[in-house]
Design goal:
single chain, about 425 residues, mainly alpha, Growth Hormone, Chain: A, about 80% helix, globular
C-alpha cells in the first residue's frame, strides 16, 4: 500500500476541527446505514423480480454485514501500519466500484457477490473513521464528537429510506442501489480533498503476526473493551432486526407502500438523531457510563412495547393502523440506540491509543458476526407475521439493557 503522502491532493489539506471531523465521520460512518437503509424499500421488489427465496434475499443483507465484520480484521491493522488516509481512499474506491456492480446485477447470486464486496470495502472506511476519533481525542471528548457525527449520520438515515422508497417506487429497485453508488463516489471525493492523515506515528509492527495476535488477545481480554463491545453489538443486533425484517413486516404484513415504508424508517432515523442529542446532554452531566444507564431504559421500553403489543394481538393484518405500535416501539429503541452507539464506539478503543485500529476492528467484527447470525435466523423465521420482528427486538433490548446496567456499570470506566 502506498504512503499517506503519495495519496494527498496537490494542495495542502486543512487540519480537522471538531466540526469538520464530525462531518467527515458522518460521511464515513454513514456508508453503513446508506448501504442498508437506502435499498431496504426495494428489497421485496428485487426479491420478486430476481426470483429469490427469502433466505437469499436476507443474504443480500447478512453477507454484506459478515464481510464488513471480517474485513475489519484486515483493514484495522493496515490502518495502524500505513495510516488512516491510504486505507480510506483504497476502501472507498473499491466500495464505489462494488456499488456500481450491484446496480447491474442480473441475478440474486451476483447481487450477493457484489454486496459482499461492498461490505468488505465499507469496512475500511468505518474502521478508519473510528480509529481517527481515538487519534484526535481522549475517550470522553471523542464520545461527544462521535455523538455529533452520528447526529449527521442520522440525517443521512432520515433521507436514505425516503429517497430509496421514492426511487424504488418510481424507477425500480436498481435506482435505489444507484443512489448508494452515488453516495460512495461523493464520499471518496470529499475524503480525497478534505481529510488529512490523523495517525501521528504508524506502528511498524502492526502487521507482524506475533505482535498482532498478542495485541488482539490483550484487547479481547480487557474488561473495558468487553463491556462496551457487548453493548454496541447487542444494540446493533436489535437495529438489524428492524433493518432486515421491517420491510417485509411493514410492506407485506401491514400493507404499507414502499414510499410510506421509507417515510416510516425516516421517522425512526429522526428518533435516532434525537437520541444522539439527548446523549450529548447526558454525557456532559453523567459521563459515558451514566448516559448509557439512562439510554437502556429507552431501549427496554421499545422492546417491551413491541413484545407486549404482539402478545396482546394489537398488531395484525386486520387491525386498523396496526403499524403504530411497531413504529412507536422503533422510535423508543432508536432513541436508546442514539445514546449507546457514540459512547460504545468511543469506549471500545479508549484503552488502546496505540492500537485503536485493531481495537475498533475487533469490536466491529464481533458486532457484524452477531448481526450475520440475526440475519440468518430471520431468513428462516420470517413467516408472514410480526412475531419474528417482535421477539428479535425484544431479546436484543433485554440483552442491551442488561449489559448497560451490569457490565458497563461495573467495568466501563
Amino acid at each position: 500500500m502506498s504512503s499517506a503522502k503519495s495519496l494527498a491532493p496537490p494542495s495542502r489539506i486543512p487540519a480537522l476541527t471538531p466540526a469538520s471531523a464530525a462531518l467527515a465521520l458522518a460521511l464515513l460512518l454513514g456508508l453503513q446505514p446508506v448501504s442498508t437503509d437506502v435499498y431496504l424499500p426495494a428489497l421485496p421488489a428485487l426479491t420478486r423480480q430476481l426470483g429469490a427465496a427469502m433466505p437469499q434475499a436476507q443474504l443480500t443483507m447478512s453477507a454484506l454485514i459478515l464481510a464488513f465484520g471480517l474485513a475489519q480484521l484486515i483493514w484495522g491493522p493496515l490502518a495502524d501500519r500505513f495510516g488512516r488516509r491510504p486505507v480510506l481512499l483504497s476502501g472507498l474506491v473499491l466500495y464505489t466500484l462494488a456499488s456500481l456492480g450491484s446496480v447491474w446485477a442480473a441475478s440474486i447470486e451476483s447481487l450477493i457477490v457484489w454486496r459482499t464486496l461492498q461490505g468488505a470495502s465499507m469496512a475500511a472506511a468505518v474502521v478508519s473513521a473510528r480509529a481517527m476519533v481515538r487519534d484526535l481525542y481522549e475517550p470522553h471528548q471523542g464520545a461527544r464528537v462521535m455523538s455529533l457525527a452520528l447526529s449527521g449520520l442520522g440525517v443521512l438515515a432520515v433521507v436514505g429510506p425516503a429517497a430509496g422508497g421514492l426511487a424504488a417506487a418510481g424507477l425500480g429497485w436498481r435506482a435505489a442501489l444507484a443512489l448508494v453508488a452515488a453516495f460512495g463516489a461523493f464520499t471518496l471525493a470529499w475524503v480525497f480533498w478534505r481529510v488529512p492523515e490523523t495517525l501521528a506515528r504508524p506502528n511498524p509492527k502492526a502487521l507482524q503476526p506475533g505482535p498482532l495476535l498478542s495485541a488482539w488477545s490483550a484487547i479481547a481480554r480487557h474488561p473495558v473493551f468487553v463491556a462496551w463491545t457487548l453493548l454496541v453489538s447487542f444494540t446493533y443486533a436489535g437495529l438489524f432486526v428492524f433493518l432486515a425484517g421491517a420491510p417485509f413486516v411493514y410492506i407485506e404484513v401491514l400493507g404499507l407502500s414502499p414510499a410510506h415504508y421509507g417515510l416510516a424508517m425516516a421517522s425512526a432515523a429522526l428518533a435516532y438523531i434525537a437520541g444522539t442529542w439527548i446523549g450529548r446532554r447526558w454525557l456532559a452531566r453523567h459521563g459515558m457510563v451514566g448516559a448509557v444507564q439512562r439510554g437502556a431504559a429507552l431501549t427496554a421500553a421499545g422492546g417491551l412495547l413491541l413484545v407486549g403489543a404482539m402478545a396482546l394481538g394489537v398488531i395484525g393484518r386486520t387491525t386498523p393502523l396496526a403499524f403504530w405500535p411497531v413504529l412507536v416501539a422503533q422510535w423508543l429503541y432508536m432513541l436508546g440506540h442514539g445514546v449507546h452507539q457514540p459512547c460504545g464506539q468511543a469506549g471500545v478503543a479508549g484503552p488502546f491509543p496505540q492500537a485503536a485500529g485493531a481495537a475498533s476492528a475487533l469490536a466491529g467484527c464481533v458486532l457484524a458476526l452477531l448481526a450475520f447470525g440475526v440475519g440468518a435466523w430471520l431468513g428462516v423465521a420470517l413467516d408472514g407475521s410480526v412475531r419474528p420482528l417482535a421477539w428479535g427486538v425484544g431479546v436484543a433490548a433485554l440483552l442491551t439493557s442488561a449489559t448497560a446496567w451490569t457490565l458497563v456499570r461495573r467495568l466501563g470506566r
